[in-house]
Fold each of these.
Amino acid sequence: MSQEIDATRIPELQQVVGQALELARAAGASAADADASMQKGLSVTVRMGEVETIEYHRDRGMAVTVYFGQSKGSASTADLRAEAVQQTVAKACAIARYTASDACAGLAEPEDMAREFPDLDVDHPWNIEPEQAVELARACEAAGLAVDARIANSEGASLATHRGVRVFGNTHGFLAGFPSTSHSLSCALLAQSGSDMQRDHWYALARSATDLQPAAAIGRRAAERALARLGARRLSTRRASVLFSPEMARGLYAHFIGAIRGASQYRRASFLLDAAGQQIFPSFLQMQERPHLRRGLASSNFDSEGVATRDRELVSGGVLDGYVLGSYSARKLALRTTGNAGGIHNLIVSAPAASADFAGLLARMGSGLYVTELLGQGVNGVTGDYSRGASGFWIENGAIAFPVHEITIAGNLREMLRNIVALGTDVDIQGAIRCGSVVVEGMTIAGE
């Protein structure tokens, strides 16, 4: 039998899942689902040209959930042998027999199961040897260190590659799986001038290694970002526009997604309670979910319950169309699953009528704060209160004036989302949320 982690392992995993489902039925379960996976990966870290870590992992596992009526039990194992699967199903059944009935518990509806499985081009193995990975990480770091004599130290360069195969099935007759990959390369460097020392980093993440930025380019970008932060100052407390870089903007939208998840809604723990149909963003902003993008980092034909994923207009004209739901939260809200059990699938944020390149955003701002790093976890998902440490650059007369640090930016997320005035064309696709820079007016900047 093949020892590779690739599509040839799907029949083996299907057999494991099928066995688990048969055992659950035989034990009296009215319904069940199971998820089996295999994965392997390599990661290396180099610092100042020396190898710090080389890690190789190879994992496998199976999780099963059984329902006796509407009482639920779950168990998992890292052993895929038949006897281990049998023991795991028995444990899940034992748990279910002692669990209280929940009217909303159960599999997703049969009619919602995925039935079409187009190739999403998410499997691109990188057959790189540890020695090659080390040399690539070294080249990345060396390129950064060579940029300027003020790049005095390094936190290292890291390369990681991962490949996995997953199969999911349930007693509705759904049984499907696919292999996928992800690869990354990153570098973090320190710049020093006198007693002033600043750190920054850069990275690349993709399904295929051929889509990663060149190692030298990543190292140089990390160095340039660290050098740009030398001479950072504090600001006096004020109110101003804030420009979030694409990486920071992604976090802003993630808070929005968290607020419209089904769990936040039915628990009544969201700053956007009952917000479906309301104007949340300015009218020029759109959000589309596109689960079937080829090579997308969050692409999938089905969610973690087997429900078919579909293109969706989540926000149109600034108005929220609906929530992000799995089957359980959908039942709690008397709604229908949106195929988002397990998360969002390639959310694209756009504003055709209010977009500009980076220079255009700076010109539109005039003066304000450009945020390239956020610190701390000062975000309250219930009230929307937002307060986080930040660093970046002060903008004056439409241009970067000087770097800033040791400040806090604050506001309320509901107001911040309404106060978006422009989006950047510098879209970052390295995540489940694809977005460019975003300008938010009227935030409080706390400094000296």
Amino acid sequence: MSARRVEIYLPEDRLMELESILARHCRRFWREAVPGAHEKYTAIVQQRYTERLLEDLEATFAQVPRFSAQVMSLEAVIPALEETAETELPLDTDLPPPTALERFFSRDRLSTDELYDDIEESLHIRPSYLLTVTLSAIIAGLGMRSGQTAVVIGAMIIAPLLGPTMGLALAATVGNLDLGRRAASTLAIGSVFAVLAGAFLGYIVSIDPLVPELRNRTLVQPADIALALACGAAGVLAFSRGASLALVGVMIAVALVPPLAATGIYLGAGYPLAGVNALYLFGINLVCVNVAGIVMFLVQGLPPKSWRMTSGILALWALLLVVLASMMAGRIVLGFGSLDLIAGYLADRI
């Protein structure tokens, strides 16, 4: 059972309010004397209740001087805290009860503040970020050029696109405009550097444009949409449970880094149509990852600030996905997206 240890520091004159809040969100808490004119409370909170406890604390004490709350993960609690529908703590009367699906998925999800903290560091555009993006694109490009799938996977492990991609989905879910802007700018700059790195590689290194690892990035099939949706959903599900960032990064990067590297390689080698097709695959993958990510965040009970805003953003992403998928279907029907046509185009340019 996942649980959190929450330490709260508060002036003595607000302790009665604090105890009433703690009683609504946890079953075990105790008071400790600390130097100064404030007290320390420690609470053991089931992970599913951490979100609402932090919201209640922030709404009540955010403006109180010397107030602070710290959250830590616990490996084990003895005796264990039961996690059943019969033993769950009641919600405030003005909130709707959680559905069975929300109860199931949210019981071991990280709180919104913890998700913010995990994403925050990855949204800074530092030299290390740009260098890692560039190197991952070069490694992915060399792996695709030589047909070595293991090398491509290695490039995806180091690709730092997890943070900004998850940041976009999280910002759309909770309606955080500032987070969305930062995530979008970080992802856009990283994507540009990945394409430039691929273009440099395609310009200085001879490539066989028909090698399957490269050629497959110029094709968009229904299976690619299914893959990108699965990557986004699995990535958010693992990320929101504190899974290894390298593991989650592979889920996301598998849909983003190779198409970007292939775009640059084809452009640098003088195959603009193939480069545009690879960029088209990247666009579809990015939209799919965000659609699946927002839906998965909502399924896990992440609380939007405005359902109207979140629904509108999700509808825009879904509409864009429908448009891109319709273009894909049209290309397939007309034969523009067939393997034979792409292979013929590339063979003619060799």
